[in-house]
Write a structure and sequence with these properties.
Strand 3 and strand 4 form a beta hairpin. The longest helix has 16 residues, at 48-63. This protein has 165 residues and is an alpha+beta fold. It contains 4 helices and 6 strands. The N and C termini lie close together (9 Å).
């Protein structure tokens, strides 16, 4: 696992249990995530991609990774738009679509139901892997209101984005 990937997993793990207030897609911590995007943080909108943007920003800082002319951190609030963001970067990111079982801890995993999170394990023999996701719930909804650790199947993954060392 690269230094940036290990920072991603550590930072995302520390956020497990954060919840929005009363199903509003808002709250102090949630609004902090949303401020890492290009949308107004105080307005109500689904924030799974905002969580990813915030974690990546914080992990880059902790790992000493800086933006360059050819690499900018993600600021999109759209799960599927993260694919376009990654493809616009230099070789710092590697997008694979479909991902299959090529998933590692620290990867951004984009699901086929317009949701996104981070892998915290590689798939097991049955194709299941662990994630940390924002704006989900116990049933795995894409609008669930909390940061949670989940088990997902590789068949649910549309693509994955890996940061290269």
């Amino acid at each position: 696992m690269s230094n940036l990937a290990s920072h991603i997993v550590r930072i995302a793990t520390a956020e497990i249990g954060v919840e929005e207030i009363d199903g509003t897609n808002c709250g102090h911590r949630v609004n902090t995530y949303k401020a890492a995007t290009n949308l107004p943080p105080l307005e109500s909108w689904p924030w799974c991609a905002a969580f990813v943007c915030w974690v990546v920003r914080e992990a880059m800082s902790g790992a000493g990774v800086t933006e360059t002319l050819t690499f900018k951190r993600p600021t999109t609030a759209g799960a599927w738009a993260l694919e376009s963001w990654s493809l616009r970067q230099d070789r710092t990111t590697w997008t694979k679509k479909p991902a299959g079982r090529d998933i590692e801890p620290g990867d951004i995993v984009i699901f086929n139901f317009s949701h996104v999170g981070f892998a915290t394990s590689s798939p097991d023999d049955t194709g299941h892997f662990q994630t940390i996701e924002g704006n989900t719930d116990g049933q795995g909804s894409r609008e669930g209101g909390a940061v949670l650790a989940k088990w997902r199947r590789t068949s649910q993954v549309r693509s994955r984005i890996r940061f290269r060392p």
